[in-house]
Design a protein that fits this description.
Keywords: DNA-binding, Transcription, Transcription regulation. It comes from Actinoplanes ianthinogenes. InterPro entries: Homeodomain-like_sf (IPR009057), HTH-type_TetR-like_transc_reg (IPR050109), HTH_TetR (IPR001647), Tet_transcr_reg_TetR-rel_C_sf (IPR036271), TetR_C (IPR011075). This is HTH tetR-type domain-containing protein. The chain is about 65% helix and about 0% strand. It is mainly α and about 200 residues long. The protein folds into two domains: about 55 residues, Homeodomain-like (Arc Repressor Mutant, subunit A, Orthogonal Bundle); about 120 residues, Tetracycline Repressor, domain 2 (Orthogonal Bundle), CATH 1.10.357.10. α1 crosses α4. The N terminus is likely disordered.
Length: about 200
Amino acid sequence: MSATPHGPSGRPRDPEVDARITRAAAEVFGENGWHRFTIDTVARRAGVGKASIYLRWPNKEALLAAALAARLNGIEDIDTGSVRDDLISLARQIQRSYLGESGRAALQLRVDAQRVPEVQDHLHRLQESQVLAARAIVRRAIARRELHPQTSVTLLLDCVCGGVMNHVLATPPHLRDQVAAGADDYAAALVDFVLASTQSKP
């Protein structure tokens, strides 16, 4: 059995409070960016005192790093046995990353990563997980002869992943919920459009 996390005082930490704080931190960062990201603002949003935050994290850099680690998940490589279904899964995961609960934080991370060295690793991990999963999907499809051996992995993935990102970035804030509701249908339509020009003929 793993040990219960403790703060500097040795008292057991409350996972519910930790979750509330990291959720609030992700929301504040997503809404305000790094320059307006403060311990005071996060504490108010989470409904806790600043002391509760400082017992857990020494500064706002460490708090944001913890929030991003807790709230932003990487992209998983899911092998369904079908290139179409694999690519749809990939597209849907990318959409959820940027349209879900912590989507604004994920988008803001792309802007502020260069300014905040403590969070650069989180962006790199997100990007790397996407690239590795995407390459694996296309290479499996080529091995199964679902795609022509000369299919450009880079171009195909630029079309799918780039299409998803453009769709997300072009969405006005007031339409985010509407776009999120139709995300699954969009992912399928995008993948079908891309595959129509790349799939090998029987």
